[in-house]
């Protein structure tokens, strides 16, 4: 990487010599008229947008539902090569309740996602049966998109990797909330994975850690002044992550690189550096979005990408596309990259997860007896000392060189005597199949539960753990004690 770092360092020297405000820095990229338009975006709000979890509810049903709450969903005008990029939708006419606290969000029916940020997972274009790696996955928006798409296609599996413990907790929370069982989570530094397992994933997403200028430019004090030293350090890391992702990718597979930042150092310069290092092994593919802006060819007199390559990548500017700032590039791997194989010793030991025939029969029997849930072909259960997890059989196809922190979704916790204690994950994954021990609630009651309150009902009893439903759609777990439904949402 020495020659790559030298190029990046030379590009940054002039900018490092003086302290720049963020707006002064951006003015170097834009002509006078465009710069005035960019400044005007400081006075504008980026429209709220969401991704519907289609494993949980059909889009048409969700559209009808939210219309009753005074909201309207509008698809962005983004399309290309026969594709319509409408996985993330604008939300208009918001009511007084914020999206994040709405009961449909708390129960995993949608994920709050910015429109441009939601494009990289769509550009990855996963297919049925793909084994996919999200290399830098937290807080989970793109993993949610990928796993939901694979679920709709009828097969495939996602490994979501995140090294930071607090961020990984957020990732796990969001996967659990949305009930996406065709997932597993690992905790490696992203640079490691390509050396641990090479050429095993059909698709790879590298949504790299970045300076965040594209989303934070209006509110984050860190972007008041440009921190070129930080951007330069991030650029070095991004190159390492991109190379790691390419090594983990199968020959013939495709990788998407993205950031939510606007500077060239973390975008075009990263792409140019990796293309220069592996000119024969990889190729840049066009990002087919008609409404995109092309990449930059030069900055401060330095060439970034040739014109034909710059046309292939995608930039999104707040003043042009009216989204957050974002960058996307797509690669195909044509031949192997050199690797130096590493071994994680933990993978040589027992994982602690069991998947016996006895376990499958035990859990299926419990679900049928206590919930009226019939056997489904894609149910696959794993257990450890603490819990039982629902996943899919494709979990067994993950590469053996990766240590998995968590499989699927926890649906039961194990009690002190080995008894199975239902968890919210049971509702998120299998609640729609439940025919027993369910109770219908109103929207008002659902919102109370979402607000971490218990609710009182007319008919008392000791019904144990119940699955609440509203209009037949599963919402959350409660424990009935007399006339009280005790909240077990989280």
Folded structure, characterized:
This protein has 490 residues and is an alpha+beta fold. The chain has a domain at 437-490: Archaeosine Trna-guanine Transglycosylase, Chain: A, domain 4 (Roll), CATH 2.30.130. The chain is built from 16 helices and 26 strands. The longest helix has 21 residues, at 228-248.
Percentage of residues in DSSP E strands: 15-25%
- What is the arithmetic mean of pLDDT? 90
> What is the first-to-last residue Cα distance?
46 Å
Give the strand tally: 26
CATH architecture annotation name of one domain: Roll
pLDDT below 50 for ≥5 consecutive residues: which ranges? Answer: 1-10, 12-17
What is the CATH topology descriptor of one domain? Archaeosine Trna-guanine Transglycosylase, Chain: A, domain 4
Q: Quick one: biggest sheet?
A: 9 strands, mixed
Q: State the helicity in percent bands.
A: 25-40%
């Amino acid at each position: 990487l020495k020659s790559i770092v030298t190029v990046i360092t030379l590009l940054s020297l002039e900018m490092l010599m003086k302290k720049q405000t963020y707006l002064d820095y951006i003015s170097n990229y834009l002509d006078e008229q465009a710069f005035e338009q960019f400044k005007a975006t400081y006075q504008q709000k980026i429209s709220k947008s969401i991704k519907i979890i289609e494993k949980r509810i059909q889009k048409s049903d969700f559209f009808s539902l939210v219309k009753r709450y005074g909201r309207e969903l509008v698809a962005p005008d983004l399309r290309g090569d026969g594709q319509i990029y409408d996985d993330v939708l604008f939300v208009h006419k918001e009511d007084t309740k914020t999206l994040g606290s709405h009961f449909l969000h708390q129960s995993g029916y949608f994920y709050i996602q910015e429109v441009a940020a939601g494009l990289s997972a769509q550009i990855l274009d996963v297919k049925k049966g793909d084994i996919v790696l999200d290399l830098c996955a937290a807080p989970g928006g793109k993993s949610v998109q990928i796993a939901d798409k694979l679920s709709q296609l009828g097969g495939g599996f996602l490994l979501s990797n995140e090294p930071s413990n607090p961020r990984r907790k957020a990732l796990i929370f969001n996967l659990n909330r949305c009930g996406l069982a065709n997932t597993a989570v690992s905790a490696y530094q992203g640079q490691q994975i390509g050396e641990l397992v090479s050429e095993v994933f059909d698709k790879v997403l590298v949504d790299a850690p970045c300076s965040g200028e594209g989303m934070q430019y209006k509110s984050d004090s860190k972007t008041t002044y440009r921190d070129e030293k930080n951007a330069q350090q991030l650029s070095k890391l991004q190159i390492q992550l991109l190379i790691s992702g390419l090594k983990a990718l199968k020959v013939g597979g495709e990788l998407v690189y993205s950031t939510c930042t606007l500077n060239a150092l973390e975008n075009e310069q990263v792409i140019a550096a990796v293309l220069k290092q592996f000119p024969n092994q990889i190729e840049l593919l066009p990002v087919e979005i008609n409404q995109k802006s092309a990449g930059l060819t030069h900055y401060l007199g330095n060439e970034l990408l040739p014109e034909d390559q710059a046309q292939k990548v995608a930039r999104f500017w707040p003043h042009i596309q009216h989204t957050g700032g974002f960058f996307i590039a797509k690669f195909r791997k044509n031949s192997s990259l050199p690797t130096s194989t590493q071994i994680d010793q933990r993978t040589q030991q027992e994982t602690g997860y069991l998947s016996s025939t006895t376990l499958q029969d035990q859990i299926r029997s419990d679900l049928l007896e206590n919930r009226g849930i019939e056997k489904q072909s894609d149910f696959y259960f794993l257990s450890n000392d603490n819990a039982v997890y629902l996943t899919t059989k494709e979990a067994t196809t993950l590469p053996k060189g990766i240590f998995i922190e968590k499989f699927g979704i926890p649906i039961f916790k194990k009690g002190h005597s080995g008894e199975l204690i239902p968890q919210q994950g049971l509702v998120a994954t299998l609640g729609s199949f439940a025919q027993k021990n369910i109770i219908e609630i109103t929207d008002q009651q659902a919102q109370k539960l979402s607000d971490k309150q218990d609710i009182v009902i007319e008919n008392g009893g000791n019904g144990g753990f119940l699955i609440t439903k509203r209009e037949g759609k599963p919402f959350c777990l409660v424990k009935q004690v007399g006339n009280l439904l005790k909240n077990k949402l989280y």
